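Customer escalation, tier 2.

The customer says the design service returned an amino acid string that "doesn't look like it belongs to this structure." They asked us to rerun it and document both sides in this ticket. The original structure tokens are below, unchanged.
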């Protein structure tokens, strides 16, 4: 990763629809939550923003805040996407923001070709590989005094008998690198789960047999007890000196599934106790770029233990802007050689809501009491920002509501009541 000299002629004075842009454009890979959030964060900044989408019906395609082009998928057709980017003569010098692990690996795989034409918003090669390998990340963190869960890497079924003594039960089965469970048909093979809680040796044997169909090398980590709100994050931007130049901190309020799920409600709040360990970790990794560092508080030891690092924008990054930290703009300014924006006054508490995931959780809770959400009104309190809905950009939510939410809701209600009447 490096900066672009915007006055050198690369990406300079781009003309589109009669308007001249003096700074390089931005290319967003995919227009789901994360990509839509990037487009909104860069709106009104005087730069051209292009979203690339392989999903013709996804809600983010309907934003009014950026141009959206159909392009191959980085996961399914990486070579096709590389050729698309290399053929696009009007995007020279653009900053390319990935939004999924598959995008990060695509940019890394085609780094040598693409970086001649684009500024790739991913960490340097060695740093990236150290960070996405959770086993290596755990070792580096431990060496600089950051608490980590007990961790064991399994290479074959012969290693299973080590888990009880070296990690213990319950534990969590997860990929060594997150992208491994998204390659080819791996996501279906692992049951569309990002991680799997294991309670005993029998379930370990059964689950390993299933996930080893995707990859034989997996990670087993100690399960840290505690509610969802023990999960906390630092989201920030790290410069070429591995210094954290801007950040916000947040706490998970609700995730689905409860054990190893994706955040539905996240709230920003001051959590300075996880900022300094993150600074040490960035320096040890020689990190550069956008990062989300996740910890879980262990009530048994009184420590925040490192879980993982996202090396890109993540679903809830819009929470930063609601909290006074626009990470997309900060990253763009740094990568293009502009002065970093002056810090805004921090908002102590802001809440990010994935309205689609939350609604589906509430609907499923009608027939499954275990999914019911206690004290929902309190969980939704504070200044709110949404994954899809925005008053200044309403079409994505309208598209989601009419094209996805209503049909899904009708189908679930039909199936539920159809089964009820059949049983009657």
């Amino acid at each position: 990763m490096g900066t672009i000299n915007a006055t050198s002629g690369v990406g300079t004075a781009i003309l589109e629809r009669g308007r001249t842009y003096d700074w390089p454009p931005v290319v967003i890979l995919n227009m789901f939550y994360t990509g839509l959030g990037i487009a909104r964060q860069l709106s009104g900044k005087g730069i051209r923003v292009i979203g690339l989408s392989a999903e013709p019906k996804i809600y983010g395609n309907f934003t009014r805040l950026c141009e959206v082009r159909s392009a191959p998928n980085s996961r399914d057709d990486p070579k096709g996407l590389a050729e698309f980017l290399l053929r696009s003569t009007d995007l020279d010098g653009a900053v390319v923001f990935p939004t999924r692990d598959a995008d990060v690996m695509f940019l890394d795989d085609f780094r040598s070709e693409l970086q001649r034409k684009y500024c790739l918003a991913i960490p340097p090669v060695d740093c990236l590989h150290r960070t996405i390998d959770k086993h290596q990340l755990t070792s580096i963190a431990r060496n600089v005094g950051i608490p980590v869960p007990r961790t064991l890497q399994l290479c074959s079924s012969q290693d299973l008998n080590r888990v009880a003594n070296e990690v213990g039960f319950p534990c969590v089965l997860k990929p060594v690198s997150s992208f491994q469970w998204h390659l080819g048909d791996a996501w279906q093979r692992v049951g569309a789960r990002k991680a799997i809680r294991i309670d005993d040796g029998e379930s370990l044997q059964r689950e390993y047999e299933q996930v080893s169909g995707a990859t034989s090398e997996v990670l087993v980590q100690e399960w840290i007890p505690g509610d969802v709100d023990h999960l906390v994050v630092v989201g920030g931007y790290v410069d070429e000196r591995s210094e954290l130049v801007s950040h916000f901190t947040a706490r998970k309020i609700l995730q689905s599934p409860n054990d190893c799920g994706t955040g539905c409600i996240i709230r920003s709040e001051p959590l300075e106790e996880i900022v300094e360990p993150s600074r040490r970790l960035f320096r040890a990794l020689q990190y550069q770029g956008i990062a989300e560092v996740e910890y879980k508080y262990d009530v048994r030891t009184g420590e925040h233990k490192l879980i993982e690092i996202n090396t890109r924008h993540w679903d809830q990054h819009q929470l930063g802007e609601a909290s006074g930290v626009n990470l997309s703009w900060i990253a763009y300014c740094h990568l293009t050689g502009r002065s970093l924006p002056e810090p805004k006054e921090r908002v102590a508490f802001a809440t990010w809501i994935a309205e689609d995931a939350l609604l589906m959780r509430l609907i499923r809770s009608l027939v499954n009491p275990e999914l019911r959400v206690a004290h929902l009104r309190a969980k939704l309190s504070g200044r709110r920002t949404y994954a899809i809905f925005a008053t200044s950009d309403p079409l994505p939510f309208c598209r989601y509501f009419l094209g996805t939410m209503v049909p899904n809701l009708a189908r679930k209600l039909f199936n539920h009541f159809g089964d009820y009447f059949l049983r009657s």
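Tier 2 assessment: The sequence is consistent with the input. The radius of gyration is 22 Å. The chain has three domains: 14-122, 150-222, 228-387. Sent an explanation to the customer and offered a walkthrough call.
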